[in-house]
Automatic annotation (TrEMBL):
Residues 13-70 form the HTH lysR-type domain. The keyword Disulfide bond does not apply. The keyword DNA-binding applies. This is LysR family transcriptional regulator, nitrogen assimilation regulatory protein. GO terms for biological process: regulation of DNA-templated transcription initiation. InterPro entries: LysR_HTH_N, LysR_subst-bd, WH-like_DNA-bd_sf, WH_DNA-bd_sf. It comes from Loktanella atrilutea. Keywords: Activator, DNA-binding, Transcription, Transcription regulation. GO terms for molecular function: DNA binding; DNA-binding transcription factor activity. Belongs to the LysR transcriptional regulatory family. It comes from the Bacteria.
Length: 326
């Protein structure tokens, strides 16, 4: 039971009333909400009337076309959603803290990491942790940082640690970046697989993400260090489209082999390592220290590190392994 005092006196609401109110607003009408909640419409109407009487305000404006929230109703709706979500999180965390390693784990991955990690991780979790429901969501690293911060995901991979001092951080590997081209569009004098100095890529038409993208910043920083001016003719922030353009011979690119292991295996692209300087980016596994850590999340984190290490050892995820915990 929730109670409030002050100038209005004591007002009492329970979680069921808040959930009913949310359902009415989201359905847009009492009749539809009643059907969705599987309760009689007169009973739902009575619940709403009791809430309005207890609070001393009108929460909804009714019309033949449905119901709309008043200003007071909007305030209640915002807080009701927060309260109900917090209660659901509380119950989930208490369940997850039981002896059984079970429950849901939400994982955020950048697209290039997901291409190499999501399938083997899902298979391993399913085999070794059958009572855990793993959900993997893809997004750019910056979005994943926000998701870990606000609890949208419990665990994630990041390339950049700016502003995440409050996270629990594991440095997994340093991922090497390579030069890629279509087999019939190879622009270099040296054969594929032969390390190429970055200066030899000056003038070659490149397809890269736009400037705010972390990969682009790393490539441009390396080029500046080597005093090389890159010829970026097309900017695309979607890795799938970059790979397709390169495979079709419409430009070359620089990115991590993990992003296109399947395309290289199919013979649609070829690659060569870059030297002078070697370009790499760190990959971190992160969790929010301030959030409750369930046994399920801890178990998935441990499995993730082992799967990542195996991918590096098998040269599926090309880079230098930093984590040595197992």
């Amino acid at each position: 039971m929730l109670a409030s005092g002050g100038a209005w006196g004591e007002r009492r609401l329970d979680i069921r009333q808040l959930k009913y109110f949310i359902a009415i607003v989201e359905a847009g009408s009492l009749s539809l909400a009643a059907r969705q909640l599987r309760i009689a419409q007169p009973s739902l109407s009575q619940h709403l009337a009791n809430m309005e009487r207890e609070l001393g305000v009108r929460l909804l404006t009714r019309s033949p076309r449905g119901s709309t929230t008043t200003a007071e109703g909007q305030v209640l709706l915002r807080h009701a959603r927060t309260i109900c979500a917090s209660l659901d999180d509380c119950l989930r965390e208490m369940r997850d803290l039981s002896d059984a390693v079970a429950g849901g784990v939400r994982f955020g991955m950048p697209p290039s990491v997901s291409m190499v990690m999501s399938v083997p991780l899902a298979e391993t979790v399913r085999l070794e942790l059958p009572d855990i429901r793993l959900r993997v969501s893809e997004a750019m690293s910056g979005f994943i940082k926000t998701w870990v911060d606000d609890g949208t995901v419990e665990i994630g991979f990041l390339y950049d640690l700016t502003g995440v001092a409050h996270f629990e951080i594991t440095h997994v590997l340093n991922e090497r970046l390579f030069f890629f081209s279509a087999p019939d569009n190879w622009p270099l004098q040296t054969p594929p697989g032969t390390p190429v100095p970055l200066r030899d890529l000056a003038g070659i038409e490149l397809v890269l993400p736009g400037e705010p993208h972390g990969l682009r910043r790393i490539v441009e920083a390396a080029a500046a260090e080597a005093d090389v001016r890159l010829n970026v003719v097309t900017e695309l922030d979607a890795m799938t489209q970059i790979k397709e353009l390169v495979a079709r011979g419409s430009g070359c690119s620089i990115f991590a082999p993990a992003a296109c292991h399947d395309v290289v295996q199919a013979g649609r692209m070829i690659k060569t390592p870059i030297i002078d300087p070697v370009i790499s980016r760190p990959v971190y596994l992160v969790r929010n220290r301030s959030a409750g850590q369930s046994r399920a999340c801890s178990a998935v984190a441990a499995v993730t590190l082992k799967v990542a290490a195996e991918m590096v050892r098998r040269d599926i995820w090309e880079g230098d392994l930093v984590w040595t915990g197992g």
